[in-house]
Amino acid sequence: MEGFLARILLRLWVILILLFLFIPLVLIFVYAFNTSNIESWPIPGLTFKWFLPTWNDPDIRRSLGLSLQVALGATALALVLGSLAAFAIHRMTWFGKEVVSLMFVLPLALPGIVTGIALYSAFSFSNVTLSILTIIVGHTTFCIVVVYNNVLARLRRTQGSLVEAAMDLGANGFQVLRDITLPLISTAVVAGAMLAFALSFDEVIVTTFTAGAQNTLPLWIFGAIRLGQRLPEVNVVVSFVILVTIVPVLIAARLTGGGGTARVPAAR
Amino acid sequence: MTAGEQPKKPALRLQGVKKSYGPVVAAAGIDLVVEEGEFFTLLGPSGSGKTTLLRLIAGFERPDAGTIELGGRDVTALPPYMRQTNTVFQDYALFPHMSVGQNIGYGLRIRHVPGPERRKRIDRALAMVRLTELENRRPNQLSGGQRQRVALARAVINEPQVLLLDEPLGALDLKLRQEMQIELKQIQKEVGITFVYVTHDQEEALTMSDRLAVMTNGQIEQIGSPVDVYERPASEFVAGFIGISNVLLRDGVRFVVRPEKIRMLAEGEPAPSGTTVEAGQVEEVIYVGMSTRYVVRLDRGEQLVAVRQNMDAIGDAQKFEGRPVRLAWTPDNTFVLDKREVGSP
User: Fold this and answer.
1) Residues of chain B with C-beta less than 8 angstroms from the C-beta of A267
2) Which domains does chain B have, with CATH numbers?
3) What is the mean pLDDT of the segment spanning A195-206?
């Protein structure tokens, strides 16, 4: 009987934690449909009236566009640099490899404000005008990490003898990469890209220091909340950001959690 | 090693092959010739350098010195993908993202063998290892024995000059291993490819090989047929590694008597003419199913192991424990290791 009771309590506890984590998120969603522009509970009624003005707002549109460009740019850069770094660290056995590995991962562990200030000083020191490019560079510093970590973890989990087996069967370096290595790490690469995109899309702190006059979507939200006006639109935008970041994260979790490997075109 | 005029080139020839990893010598100047169509085994304990030798032949490692020839062609400097060798890996190394059929056909695909020809050979290879129905399965959907056969088919299908097998049966359980030993041998006869087989299992080596090389410390101790190596071991190491060896020193001569060649005389039984007889005491009786092993302490000090088939009266074996016995063997059945210039004690 005690086991039964313990199980019930454990479940209750889990439910409480989940509520604690998700009630704030649910609230935002609910407020996005609030008929009143004052956030009070219970809400007087449900409406779609905030969606159209939000969608048509030129500021919001411009911010969304910038955020998407930055996220795509940072993800693309992170993909190339992160994968290459993972390959290098995996293959090589140089002295100090662990130190280099740590240096790659550090930007994710560093507080955003440190990265932000450091980048800001570096940019002003070298007379680089803040623009979309500086934001992309800023985001790439921590986006590299997730791609790097994902790819390296997969490489380490892959049997070393597979590469030898392919070479043994007549595949040269390029063919081994094309037929064996890339298919085996493909899901990890995609998962890394998804996470990088999600990280970049809702980043605030580093962006604050590396953006010039432009606003990314999170920066716009930040500004709008500070001014205290247009809260209903903020809720709509935030709901959208939640969706845009959660979906890639879920896909990434599926891709890496399955432990599986992507299908490749038939060998015949 | 030059055997006069040979009509065809050997499948594999190693000359003075050396390889060290730091202070560890994995191959200390190996000379070796494997003939076309031979089932050749490298036998040795772990760390004896047998796997390194295989990797040198496959091209995964470069020798520090010496040359490796395949069919008379020097391949020492060639990478693995330019050598006519294929390997069956200990962990099989099947590509997890490819089906059984794709795994088996990979070598042909890489070498641009045309589709219909490839299809035919894949079908033949699948039939050879009895996996035709499993062609579309993934490696993770197969049992250990099935994976092993895929690995074999994937290598054999390319008709390599030499097929290299790195303890291919090591991961299988005893029953399956014995079945696969027979199957492997049959396949080897069928396809007629030269096999170089690495194992630490002396029984496996004796049953399967045409010839074998016993290795230790990066050196070959002896090369010969299973009968040669078992009956006429070249050194104490070989004698001890292959089977149970009883090494005795009598009149300055060190020699080996195999346990099954020793006859235990019953009480009062006269020694057959021409045999050497020594007395001792049975210390231990070990029942091993088909036979029983008797560990005997000789009166002159050494320990000998004698084996007797369990043909008659089971149960009487235990009665021997602690009893004095006489052991008899004919000098023909001993093998001299070396003579020492020491007088008899």
Assistant:
1) 98-99, 101-103, 105-106, 109
2) 12-237 (3.40.50.300), 246-339 (2.40.50.140)
3) 90
